[in-house]
């Protein structure tokens, strides 16, 4: 536990703007661009700075959570006195700081007293808060005092934040998930001269998707997609799409080669498994986790039969179930249930499984090179994984009433997006899309779908209540 001079030194070290009035350039621009790059999450989080609730930012390691926090602080410094903004990270080696003591020392040192409602607001950013025992009870105590303090916390494990917030902070905390850069941000980074146009087209596509939902007609989305094709440089976007399918959107890898990216992703995976999963969940055999991840990578987009996986990996069914939950909570895997109105029918069917980052998938399977593009089966697995992960983003933007499933009868619907009780079938193709139409039409008849989506390589059209849309346009919409 830290007290006295050690606490003051740690606070001073982590808050250089108290002396200089600004955030160091390398904190807001870690890629050395000469300017900060603001992902779209920055703007969503900036809008939450004046909300009363605690904002809890969760997401995998290395996706840019801390950089985004520094960018938010930098934005605040143009509007408030630097002494009213405090950052403290609990992820430093050898650091054992008491949360209540950190807050009290800061308020006494820099603010003078806890700010009342009539005082200017104080902003307290707490990084990797899950490392602090009883953190939620401490923040509940401060939140209940009704001081004019905005708390903003981050963590790399959903488990540590979800457990804490469910126990002590019900109604006082709002969770926000940040993943690796989605495709629209990847394009905005690599095409800075077109960044505003890309952003505008993306938002227009999403608006017209909502319009298509309201009208139960894919025509508004089709017209928006056609305008996007006229406005944007499709060949350049397609080239960037290939990069994205190979290494995904970790900010650190944006300007790195495929070989460097593969090595860094493997290092990142080891860090996540050993520093997060093993520490948080007290796993004794991390090698079993690595073997399970390779198994999931090979199965991504396919049915996951627990009994078969248990036999193949030589681990018990209960251990397998626990491991899958741990990997979900550190944002590595996701499971998709069978679509049915009946909960009992969903439970009887096997889930589909996805490894949520195709860069990690490719690194694990040794396929992070352009030979992937010649292997249609492997490419199909990668494309469906990217689409599923972006559907998770779209679900978030559509609100809490959206969810993801799959469906199977004589054929399979890869993804079912349920929004407000409406089921939209989504088929992913790497080849001829016409072969997917029959199962799509069967699902739409059975579930009275407003329309269906077939994701193609290049084809863009509407027919029979189905929109065929190129992959790059669909990802841009999400």
Structure description:
It is built from 21 helices and 14 strands. It is globular and about 70 Å long. Helix 9 runs antiparallel to helix 10. A hairpin with a 2-residue loop joins strand 13 and strand 14. It folds into two domains: 175 residues, Rossmann fold; 294 residues, no CATH class. The model has no long low-confidence stretch (mean pLDDT 91). The strands form two sheets. It has a nine-stranded mixed β-sheet, sandwiched between helices. A five-stranded parallel β-sheet has the order 2-3-4-1-5, sandwiched between helices. With 478 residues, the chain is an alpha/beta fold.
Low-pLDDT runs: none
Mean pLDDT: 91
The main sheet orders its strands as 6-8-7-9-10-11-12-14-13
- Distance between the amino and carboxyl termini: 45 Å
- The helix content is 40-55%
How many distinct helices? Answer: 21
Largest sheet: 9 strands, mixed
Q: How is the secondary structure organized here?
A:
Layout: H1 4-14, H2 17-20, H3 25-28, H4 40-46, E1 54-58, H5 65-77, E2 85-89, H6 99-111, E3 122-127, H7 135-144, E4 149-155, H8 158-168, E5 173-177, H9 183-190, H10 195-215, H11 219-231, H12 234-247, H13 258-281, H14 286-299, E6 302-304, H15 306-313, H16 317-329, E7 333-338, H17 343-348, E8 351-355, H18 358-365, H19 376-398, E9 402-408, E10 412-419, E11 422-428, H20 437-447, E12 452-456, E13 461-463, E14 466-470, H21 471-477
Helix pairs in contact: 4-5, 7-8, 9-10, 9-12, 10-11, 12-18, 13-18, 14-18, 19-21
Structure described in brief:
The chain has 478 residues and is α/β, with parallel strands linked by helices. The protein has helices at 4-14, 17-20, 25-28, 40-46, 65-77, 99-111, 135-144, 158-168, 183-190, 195-215, 219-231, 234-247, 258-281, 286-299, 306-313, 317-329, 343-348, 358-365, 376-398, 437-447, 471-477, and strands at 54-58, 85-89, 122-127, 149-155, 173-177, 302-304, 333-338, 351-355, 402-408, 412-419, 422-428, 452-456, 461-463, 466-470. It contains 21 helices and 14 strands.
């Amino acid at each position: 536990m830290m007290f006295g001079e050690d606490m003051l030194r740690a606070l001073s070290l982590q808050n250089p703007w108290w002396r200089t009035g600004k955030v160091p350039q390398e904190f807001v621009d870690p890629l050395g661009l000469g300017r900060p790059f603001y992902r779209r999450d920055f703007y969503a989080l900036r809008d939450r700075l004046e909300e009363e609730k605690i904002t809890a930012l969760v997401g995998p390691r290395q996706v840019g959570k801390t950089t985004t926090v520094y960018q938010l602080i930098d934005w605040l410094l143009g509007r408030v006195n630097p002494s009213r903004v405090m950052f403290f990270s609990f992820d430093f080696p050898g650091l054992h700081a008491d949360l209540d003591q950190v807050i009290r020392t800061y308020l006494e040192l820099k603010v003078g007293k806890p700010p009342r409602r009539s005082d200017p607001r104080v902003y307290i950013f707490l990084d990797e808060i899950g490392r602090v025992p009883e953190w939620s009870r401490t923040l509940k105590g401060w939140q209940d005092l009704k001081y004019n303090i905005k708390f903003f916390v981050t963590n790399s494990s959903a488990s540590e934040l979800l457990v804490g917030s469910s126990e002590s902070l019900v109604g006082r905390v709002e969770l926000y998930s940040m993943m690796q850069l989605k495709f629209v941000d990847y394009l905005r980074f690599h095409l800075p001269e077109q960044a505003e146009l890309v952003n505008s087209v993306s938002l227009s596509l999403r608006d017209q998707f909502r319009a298509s939902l309201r009208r139960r007609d894919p025509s508004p989305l089709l017209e928006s997609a056609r305008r996007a094709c006229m406005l944007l440089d499709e060949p350049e976007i397609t080239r960037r799409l290939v990069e994205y399918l190979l290494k995904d959107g970790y900010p650190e890898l944006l300007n790195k080669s495929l070989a460097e990216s593969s090595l860094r992703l493997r290092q990142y995976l080891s860090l996540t498994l050993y520093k997060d999963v093993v520490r948080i969940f007290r796993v004794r055999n991390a090698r079993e986790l690595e073997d399970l991840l390779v198994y999931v990578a090979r199965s991504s987009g396919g049915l996951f039969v627990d009994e078969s996986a248990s036999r193949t990996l030589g681990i018990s069914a209960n251990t397998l179930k626990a491991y899958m939950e741990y990997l979900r909570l550190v944002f590595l895997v996701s499971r998709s249930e069978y679509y049915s109105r009946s909960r009992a029918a969903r439970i009887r069917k096997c889930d589909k499984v996805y490894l949520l980052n195709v860069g990690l998938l490719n690194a694990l399977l040794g396929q992070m090179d352009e030979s992937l593009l010649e292997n249609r089966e492997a490419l199909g697995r990668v494309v469906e994984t990217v689409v599923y992960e972006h559907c998770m983003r779209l679900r978030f933007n559509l609100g809490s009433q959206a969810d993801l499933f799959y469906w199977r009868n004589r054929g399979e619907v890869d993804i079912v997006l349920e929004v407000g009780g409406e089921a939209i079938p989504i088929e992913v193709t790497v080849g001829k899309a016409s072969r997917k139409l029959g199962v799509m039409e069967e699902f739409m008849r059975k579930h009275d779908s407003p329309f269906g989506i077939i994701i193609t390589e290049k084809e863009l059209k509407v027919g029979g209540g189905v929109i065929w849309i190129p992959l790059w346009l669909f990802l841009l919409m999400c």
